[in-house]
Amino acid sequence: MSERVDVPVSDLVRRAPKVLLHDHLDGGLRPATVAEIAAEVGHPLPAAPEALGDWFVEACDSGSLERYIATFEHTIAVMQRREDLVRVARECVEDLAEDGVVYAEVRWAPEQHLAGGLSLEEAVDAVQEGFRAGERAAGGRIVVRQILTAMRHQARSREIAELAVRYRDEGVCGFDIAGAEAGYPPTRHLDAFEYLHRENAHFTIHAGEAFGLPSIWEALQWCGADRLGHGVRIIDDIEVDGSGRAHLGRLAAYVRDKRIPLELCPTSNLQTGAAPSLVEHPIGLLTELRFRVTVNTDNRLMSGTSMSRELQQLVDALGWGARELRLVAVNAMKSSFLPFDERLAIIEQVLKPAYAELGA
């Protein structure tokens, strides 16, 4: 059983405005919310309410992506009624705003939330209602958009892609596929990606997390992804020689040259075995080599984390300061699926002034 060490957050990290591109709605619930709704709907939980948060973290510290994914059985089970989706979405925004996040794209798979009788559209409407309520509660300190996810082991990706396009002016900014990579390549969903291209829509693909370079190559060269969900295994195409000089392979050079954003999730990568430690995490070298690096939470409940915790760990492990925090925040905002003028407004009016005060 692993032991999660508390990470005190410095004033620098606390004050730094944060931008989040890779956060799962069903992976960020408050443990108390899971317990309360589970009691109402009669879903059995694997631990007592007071120990539930620790159970999720410990279960996910296995080094296996498959076991990590299995824990979602308990969060998805409490997100089947309309009122529960609204609540979870609202609390998500409130928690992110409290953590200093100024812009977030939160992804979730509508097809997994229909057991209570909701339609796909009703589920999206419920999450949107919750997001707007959370933004209002935060007093305008945060902007949040939905990314609609299709499960890569299912066959509804075209349907979910059409849903994302239908709602793109109503709070949905993009599309994603997620789930176990091995055995389920992104090319199984080419019809959905070709449709999104025709509709001038944005999408990211989970790739290069548990699986290696072929997953990244297919996501980019076959499917045309705008961003890589994780993408941490791009490090496999970089060789550092005895003098410390890095040599990029063709795929790594392409990713860097094209400024393809990497949605890196340090704690999650450690849990699933995609990286051995924070000190050895590829994010350090990738940042030095000027890849389009972003820092993300992935699943705040399963990782017992927040954006502040992710950033503080990088400050402690890699010696990051205000300059690096500014870099990843601006990288993320540049890479978001918001319209250009809205992205620019947040960079110029929120990020740059705040980081100037922090000395970056």
Automatic annotation (TrEMBL):
Residues holding Zn(2+): 22, 24, 206, 298
Keyword Nucleus: no
Site location (Important for catalytic activity): 230
Alphabetical list of SUPFAM superfamilies matching this protein: Metallo-dependent hydrolases
Domain Adenosine deaminase: 17-352
Function field: Catalyzes the hydrolytic deamination of adenosine and 2-deoxyadenosine.
Reactions the enzyme catalyzes: adenosine + H2O + H(+) = inosine + NH4(+); 2'-deoxyadenosine + H2O + H(+) = 2'-deoxyinosine + NH4(+)
HAMAP family linked: A_deaminase
Similarity comment: family membership: Belongs to the metallo-dependent hydrolases superfamily. Adenosine and AMP deaminases family. Adenosine deaminase subfamily.
Organism: Nocardioides marmoribigeumensis
Protein name, entry field: Adenosine deaminase
Pfam families assigned: A_deaminase
Keyword Metal-binding: yes
EC numbers, comma separated: 3.5.4.4
Keyword entries, A-Z: Hydrolase, Metal-binding, Nucleotide metabolism, Zinc
InterPro entries: A_deaminase, A_deaminase_dom, Ado/ade_deaminase, Metal_Hydrolase
Residues that coordinate or bind substrate: 24, 26, 179
Chain's gene name: add
Record's cofactor remark: Binds 1 zinc ion per subunit.
Required cofactor names: Zn(2+)
